[in-house]
Amino acid sequence: MYSCGAHTEADARSGRGADVVGHSGTGRVGGAPSDRTGPLVARWRDAVTTLASLPSDAVIRAMGLTIPPTGWIRTDLAVVRTRTSSFYLLRRGDAVAAFDSGWGASVVRREVASLGLEPGSVTHVFLSHSDLDHVAGSRVFVNAEVFLARAELPLATGRVSRALGIRNHVPRHDLTLLEDGDDVELGTSRVRALLVPGHTPGSMCFLVDDRMLFTGDALTIKHGEVFTPRRLWNMDIAGRLRSNAVISDVNAPEIFTGHSGFFLSGLANPGRVASPE
After folding, report:
1. CB neighbours (10 Å) of residue 256?
2. Is residue 46 part of a domain?
3. Looking at the 3D structure of the chain, how many domains does it have?
4. What would the pLDDT profile of 41-92 be if each residue is shown by its tens digit?
5. DSSP secondary structure letters along 84-116
6. Whole-angstrom Cα distance, residue 240 to residue 244?
7. Interval 192-207: pLDDT, tens
8. Domain that residue 205 falls in
């Protein structure tokens, strides 16, 4: 179980922070989002401009990301690397699920083929949120049912701006929309949708058989410790803190992230989801 301790909605509203201990040592979380709007916008603009000018490997180094190479983790589970993000493929009988879909259609096809799989064999795609690096590859999986949180739809269809006028776009329009707590059958397994707004309004984690937690950008792992992403990348700071409470109730020994690899066991800080800020 991952416990968020004193990260409360009241703290976020009042501007108080909660002391937490994480990879970066003791820090402060919380603070009124409105107090940081100006600086966050400037930081976002600078970050986007800088990152857009760099090749993928340079972005990975600059941001301290961990993107494992494509390969089989075990006989039924693979990680797929696409540019600056990872997604995962899980086999259950005749069903094959992708948790997120990466970006760059040619890259996705090449990496999936390197695993001995055809994109057409993927039957389910579970999108954690609608940012380009997680959804653009969904167009490759033409035979798959694509799942997304209903709460993410305004952002996914461009009705709501991601930041600075940037608008997201999910290339698949035949979406199956999920609510918090919905279950989806995947062969002999069950996938439970967990709404964790903060990074985006409809961010979701997907819990498979109460064991495997696919988090998208809701969590990051550094040196065996679990964190939530930095403020810069979150649309709703208070929502992020509330979502920590949701994640804290999950007792999943295996965690899979979009930008910091995965852990199959042995987390250094079980019982804590912290913030590096």
Report:
1. 29
2. yes
3. 1
4. 566 556 655 655 555 565 555 555 678 899 999 999 999 999 788 999 999 9
5. TEEEEEEEETTEEEEES--S-HHHHHHHHHHTT
6. 6
7. 999 999 888 899 999 9
8. 9-263
Rounded to the nearest integer, the mean pLDDT of the chain is 76
pLDDT tens across 244-259, in order? 777 877 878 899 999 8
The dihedral formed by the CA atoms of 141, 102, 3 and 76, expressed in degrees to the nearest 10? 50
In a domain? residue 237: yes
Residue 165's contacts (CB-CB under 8 Å, 6 or more residues apart) are none
- From 2-11, 39-48, 119-128, 177-186, the region with the lowest mean pLDDT: 2-11
22 inside domain: yes
Report how far residue 147's alpha carbon sits from residue 128's, in angstroms, rounded to the nearest whole number.
9
In a domain, 2, yes or no: no
